[in-house]
Amino acid sequence: MLSAQELRLGYDDKVVVQQLSLDVEDAQVHCLIGPNGSGKSTLLRALAGLLKPQQGQVLLDGQSISRWKRRELAQRLAMLPQHPVAPDGLTVEQLVRYGRFPYQRLLGQPTEQDVKMVRWAIRVTGLSGFEVRPLSALSGGERQRAWIALSLAQQAATLILDEPTTFLDLGHQLEVLELLGELNRQQGLTVIMSLHDLNQAAQFGHRLVAMRAGRLEQAGAPAEVLTQALLADVFRVQARVAPDQLTGKPQFVPLSSLTGPLL
Q1: How confident is the model over 159-190, as pLDDT tens digits?
Q2: Does the global pTM surpass 0.85?
Q3: Which residue range forms the structural domain that includes residue 139?
Q4: Would you call 196 exposed, middle or buried from its count of C-beta atoms within 10 A (0-12, 13-18, 19+)?
Q5: How many domains does the chain have?
Q6: DSSP readout, 50-101?
């Protein structure tokens, strides 16, 4: 299990996250929600071992993440940043092969297991037949699935994603979220991701983690977190919240801003 204990996170003298503790249960989908600047991306980087805490610690299976060897950590955790960048001309298969680096020796040739996992990751993300296609020739949703395939090729039990639906149209957003949900159900993949769309977070997440100004406001099941009171307090929005007739998950309809007109 991944957990954060009394974290204070920041860059140089700027504190972004403070006094935050959180347990991430295995084999569940955890969605971080909160206004811009609330510290979601910073927290995700710390959970992935990419940002050293100023105070507190992140534990993976009871051991400080700082004590894990980088290669071993990469075999347990995979992170997809908000704006991943690949070299020009890279194909889908070439990109996904990068996910096998934590298992390869220096200058070593790909093993049978490497080839098997690359093919599996491409297949389960619906990209069979796209292997030799350049990333630049893919749609936004296809490109995002290729990056997810890279992460899956790592065979990591936990996948951390920073706003994986950003800049995608609604159809491609749902395509990515449905893929992550299916991988969670079929493979037991633990997913931790930040989302701006609160209704999507409630629909696809087992647990919501609401943040504001670098602090944890509330964490729990969607029905516990996505309430009129939290929307007013954290997002400064007056809204109506009711269970969806098909899923039973809470869905909200914004009614008005509580900040008033900017005139």
Answers
A1: 999 999 988 999 999 999 999 999 999 999 99
A2: yes
A3: 77-155
A4: middle
A5: 1
A6: SS--SEEEEEETTEEGGGS-HHHHHTTEEEE-SS----TT-BHHHHHHGGGG
